[in-house]
Design a protein that fits this description.
The complex is a heterodimer of chains A (437) and B (363).
Chain A (H helix, E strand, L loop, with lengths): L16 E4 L8 E4 L9 E3 L8 E4 L4 E4 L5 E2 L13 E2 L2 H7 L9 E3 L6 E3 L6 E3 L6 E3 L13 E2 L6 H12 L9 H4 L1 E2 L3 E32 L4 E27 L6 H7 L8 E2 L9 E2 L6 H21 L6 E30 L2 E8 L5 E5 L3 H29 L3 H25 L6 E4 L1
Helix pairs in contact in A: 6-7
Chain B lengths: L7 E3 L10 E5 L6 E5 L16 E2 L2 E3 L6 E2 L9 H10 L10 H7 L1 E36 L2 E31 L4 H8 L8 E2 L9 E3 L5 H24 L3 E10 L4 E15 L5 E7 L5 E3 L5 H29 L3 H37 L1
Parallel strand pairs in B: 6-12, 7-10
Antiparallel strand pairs in B: 1-5, 2-3, 2-4, 3-10, 6-9, 7-8, 7-11, 7-12, 12-13, 13-14
Helix pairs in contact in B: 1-2, 5-6
The chains are: A alpha+beta (437), B alpha+beta (363).
């Protein structure tokens, strides 16, 4: 039935309403129009000179390097953060599928060529006409297209100097690293992140021990003495933890430890997605499914809630700690965050470097100068060892070395702990070291 | 378009619905009936007044569309009414199953049926159920265990559209007392109604509608609107509705009557007031106020009080004699105790009928 079927009733559906399926004959149903679920791939060519255009960090919009044309970015006029989604069963099912194989082919609207996208890539440059292409179509529905993007604010030109400065810092790397490392050019890439929000209502219960001083009669010498005892009692409480921006990386193609070192991003600055930001830049689709990422996000929230519960306990003695965490109002967003990625070679080994495209924080892998590490460990252990070696013969000779020996042993233990920590920091992953600046 | 068929006065001697039915009215309660010719002077089944008299009535000339036939026979009402009566202690003398059966009169009472078309547009805010997955995690002995929790939430969305639906047999009241009748008689299996045929009322009285279609239309229209809005919700596949506005026309509404069977009888209470009792002619459900008799209660209370006084006197005498013969003093005390119990018990029949009647009255 259409609006014109009943001429005796002059009725038109409200603006922006479209006919939808009716489950009953004799009743027509109109609903608000939803955005087209399959947006066309965007092609960026300069309207003035026809050359390829790309998002220019300094200009804040899509610009032409040849004629200087700058197109305003639509989302600059838009206010508000990227849309949050609920954990509907449909979203979880779609998010578990990942990026579809059928989306990896892109048709260039500029020259008509069919391009093969790299697996997981959202954008590319046509090799035939050099136009920038952005393909944001998702395999599994609207919700799995990027909902927000954090534009690059660090210009590409600044990345090399930041990385060079970063290479020159640090104690346990080769001294000549900054001078001899051959740093390759940085590639700006938007990496996929799942950003979660939730409130956690936590309830806890634990046995908490409180130290008390008690007086007792020592039967051996029949004297009143005092001693410290721990009295245990059950306590309980609750805590409410809310978080809006819990980022979990959505790709497994970058080193997670390096990526963690360039965090955080200011997620309040995430803008609603528009392909303009991706023009001329690489962008990666997610390959970590939503359910998997949510488990990671939940773990982070759980730990935060656990910390809030623990902070309510005013004693260091805790046992039988139980807690429950009810997740409420969970939301997720799929956003693209800006990262510069590069690599440098040192003594025929490749090392990865990343620069936070928003804050400029640099992190990456560095070679380890093991001689410096062992020297530092020796320095940590030496005072204790020396004092112990002095105190021991003195103690054996005349009983005067007890104090130096005891001090030496304490220093030795402290040195060993320090050495262990140092070793753990510099050699966690096959001898490579990471660090952020 | 006027959706109402013409109503016209029916004179008593006019042959109606293909049968010799006379239009009469009760001079007491003014209720109008159609009765078989030759039954003039009958008692009003509702107020019990003798002498139904011919009177002109304003009603539709065409016969009813449907009739729900009697399934309960007058001869079978004894058991049903006996159970209805049995539950009342100290009932009025006239409140007996025999009297109720003797006075039971078969009556058809009318209900308007409207066949209507709803044609118009609507706007609504509908709610659609969807499920989200949440979690409840617990930490025990250092290990986290996660439990999935499914929540059903409602997504509210605007919808609009047009409706063109036809609804048959939408009921509307034809008697001002329809709500009371339905409350007393309970529901009818209206699907078992049969097409009206000449002579179907038989010996039964037929209540004349005292609510004309014009007066019943607002209620019928509300019912049509309710059905149409429910259909709009169904068409949209919505589970909830927060607000809905229907702008409709109702062309070609067709009005007919449905006659529903009942037996109406009555008994007189202490004050001589007539208390009607209704029996559903199909299901046998009985309704009406079951009053107790405060007069009988007072009489019983007086008898018990007199017995209590006599026992007190006997007890006092026994106590006096007990001064000479002590065992009689013990007996006198016991008699006084019994007298006290009987005296207190006498209050029960004095109070209970009024309490019962208040409850029946409010019910």
């Amino acid at each position: 039935m259409t609006a014109n079927q009943h001429p005796q009733i002059d009725w038109r559906p409200p603006a922006d309403f479209v006919a939808v399926e009716s489950l009953l004959p004799g009743v027509s149903v109109f609903a608000p129009r939803v955005q087209a679920s399959e947006p066309a791939a965007a092609t960026f060519r300069c309207p003035s000179c026809g050359a390829s255009t790309r998002f220019d960090v300094a200009a804040g919009g899509v610009a032409c390097e040849h004629c200087g044309y700058v197109a305003p970015t639509p989302s600059q006029a838009q206010a508000g953060p990227a849309k949050r989604h609920e954990f509907t069963l449909a979203a979880l099912a779609a998010g578990a599928q990942g990026w579809g194989v059928e989306r990896r082919q892109l048709h260039c609207e500029a020259c008509g060529a069919d391009l093969a996208l790299a697996e997981g890539a959202l954008s590319t440059t046509c090799p035939f006409c050099a136009s920038a292409q952005v393909n944001v179509r998702a395999a599994a529905g609207d919700g799995l297209r990027p909902g927000g993007v954090l534009p690059f604010t660090v210009p590409p030109e600044a990345t090399r100097s930041k990385a060079q400065a970063w290479l020159g810092k640090g104690w346990f790397q080769p001294s000549e690293l900054a001078g001899s490392a051959r740093l390759e050019s940085f590639t700006g890439i938007y990496l996929p992140f799942w950003v979660f929000g939730a409130r956690v209502d936590a309830q806890w219960k634990a046995e908490v021990g409180y130290e008390e001083t008690e007086t007792y009669l020592d039967m051996r010498d029949l004297k009143q003495k005092t001693r410290r005892v721990v009295r245990w009692r059950w306590e309980s409480g609750s805590a409410e933890v809310a978080a809006n921006h819990v980022p979990v990386v959505g790709t497994s193609r970058v080193k997670a430890r390096v990526l963690a070192d360039i965090l955080p991003f200011d997620l309040e600055a995430v803008k609603p997605f528009t392909p303009d930001y991706l023009a001329g830049w690489q962008a990666q689709g997610f390959d970590v499914p939503l359910p998997t990422a949510w488990e990671t996000g939940k773990a982070t929230l759980r730990e935060t809630a656990q910390g809030a519960c623990r902070s309510q306990i005013r004693s260091g003695h805790v046992r039988n700690f139980h807690m429950t965490a009810d997740f409420v109002d969970e939301t997720w967003r799929y956003v693209l965050l800006p990262v510069y990625v590069s690599a440098y070679r040192y003594q025929d080994q490749a090392y990865q470097v990343m620069v936070n495209g928003q804050t400029g924080v640099v992190a990456g892998q560095k070679p380890i100068a093991w001689a410096k590490v062992w020297a530092a460990i020796a320095l940590m252990l030496a005072p204790g060892l020396c004092l112990s070696l002095i105190g021991l013969p003195l103690l054996l000779a005349g009983g005067l070395g007890l104090a130096p020996l005891a001090a030496g042993l304490v220093l030795l233990v402290l040195g060993a702990v320090g050495a262990f920590v140092l070793f753990g920091r510099v050699a966690p992953a096959g001898g490579d070291v990471t660090g952020g600046v | 378009m006027n959706p109402f068929a013409e109503t016209q006065p029916i004179v008593p001697e006019e042959r109606l619905w293909g049968a010799d039915l006379l239009s009469v009215a009760c001079p007491g309660c003014q209720r109008g009936f159609l009765i078989p010719a030759g039954a003039l002077g009958r008692t009003c089944p509702i107020c019990g007044r003798d002498g139904l008299e011919p009177r002109q009535a304003l009603m539709r000339p065409e016969p009813p569309e449907c009739v729900l036939p009697f399934r309960q026979q007058a001869a079978d009402l004894g058991g049903t009414l006996a159970r209805f009566v049995e539950g009342v202690w100290l009932r009025p003398v006239d409140f007996t199953a025999e009297a109720l059966v003797r006075r039971a009169t078969p009556v058809y009472w009318p209900m308007w049926l409207v066949d209507g078309r709803v044609l118009g547009s609507w706007e609504a805010e509908f709610g659609f159920d969807y499920q989200v997955e949440s979690a409840r995690d617990s930490l025990t002995h250092g290990q986290w265990r996660s439990e999935k929790v499914l929540e059903t939430r409602i997504r509210w969305e605007p919808r609009a559209g047009q409706v063109d639906r036809t609804y048959a047999n939408v009921a509307a009241p034809a008697l001002t007392e329809q709500a009371l009748w339905l409350k007393r008689l309970g529901p009818y299996p209206e699907a078992a109604a049969q097409a009206f045929a000449s002579g179907m009322p038989g010996a039964a009285l037929v209540c004349i509608p005292d609510v004309l279609p014009e007066e019943a239309w607002p209620l019928a229209r509300a019912e049509l609107d309710a059905r149409a809005t429910a259909d709009c919700q169904t068409a949209a596949g919505a589970q909830h509705v927060r607000q809905i506005a229907l702008h409709a026309a109702y062309p070609g509404a067709h009005w007919t009557q449905l006659l529903l069977p009942a037996y109406v009888t009555y008994y007189t209470d202490d004050a001589g007031g007539v208390q009607p009792v209704w029996i559903n002619g199909v299901t046998g459900a009985v309704g009406g106020r079951r009053l107790a008799s405060p007069r009988r209660g007072a009489r019983l209370a007086g008898v018990l009080g007199a017995i209590a006084v006599a026992l007190v006197l006997i007890g006092l005498v026994a106590l006096l004699v007990g001064a000479l013969f002590p065992p009689l003093a013990l007996l006198g005390g016991l008699v006084l105790l019994v007298a006290l119990g009987v005296g207190v018990g006498a209050l029960v029949p004095a109070i209970w009928p009024r309490h019962w009647n208040q409850r029946e009255g409010s019910g």
